[in-house]
Specification:
The chain has eight helices and 16 strands. The protein is an alpha/beta fold. The protein has two domains: 149 residues, Rossmann fold, CATH 3.40.50; 124 residues, Rossmann fold (3-Layer(aba) Sandwich). It has a six-stranded parallel sheet with strand order 2-1-5-6-7-8, sandwiched between helices. A six-stranded parallel sheet has the order 10-9-13-14-15-16, sandwiched between helices. It has a two-stranded antiparallel ribbon with strand order 3-4. Helix 1 crosses helix 8 and helix 4 packs across helix 5. The longest helix has 13 residues. The N and C termini lie close together (12 Å). The structure holds ribose-5-phosphate. The site of ribose-5-phosphate has 13 residues, from strand 13 and helix 6.
Amino acid sequence: MKAPISIISGPSSQALAGRVARALGCHLADIDFSTFPDGERYLHISGAADIEYAVIIQSTSTDSDYISLLQTIDACDTANRVDVVIPYFGYARQDKRFKDGEAVSARALAGAINVDRVFTVNIHNQNVLSYFDAPATDLNAAPVIGEHIAAMELNRPMIVAPDEGAIDLVRSAADHLGVDFDYMEKTRLSGEDVLIKGKKMDVSGRDVVIMDDIISTGGTVVETTRVLDENGANRVFAACIHPVLVRNAVLRLFASGLEEIMATDTLDKSVSVISVAGLIAGAIKEKR
Ligand code: R5P
């Protein structure tokens, strides 16, 4: 008989973990998180000794989230099997040594995760999967976003990638929907600013969804919106897998004239209206 699954939520993925447990109809562990006066994190799982197969769900958008992930894995050390789902794996953009002397941060962080299996969702670069010791599977949430877009009754919709790196993601959603897609050319000027090369696009009078894996400062989407407006787009929406949304990104995005921001719940933000719980539950069932 297969061991019963317990879903263990880290502090950053509570809503998503609850939804996955609901989708699987399995046990959701009772966990307490707190912070000591000096800032150190504390974590306690009630009934940890009875857990046979732990599936930990924790996104790591902050260093503190990453510490909590390691603590959760450690607290599950009496389980027979421990899998982790890291819906958003921070530092994945530091996936290689761009110049001498740099840390390959994604490798450093992945290397410290000792479990039986790892799942990520649209990790920024697939190369990062090889940095985990355990077998790692990246799940594609683009079709889930595609389904959400399909239900929106858009006028002659088109999906646009803000750079070549997002083409596969956009193609995956567009193919699922049977709608047109295109892409822009982006040059990054600084951490916050990008240049999107003006380009003739068949968007006049159409509703356009800009789709990217991550929206962080919002700079990429703001610039893409400007170019789409210049090309006469009707309404412009933004969709992403991971709503990192630092500082005033949400304000910046709405101020650019965007109609709406839609994201998945790999990160729990106000715009996380599309759940990847079904996708994760399906993968856990398949690989158990
Ligand atoms: C970059 O390669 C990513 O795919 C995103 O385009 C980027 O992280 C978005 O960042 P921002 O919102 O700060 O422009």
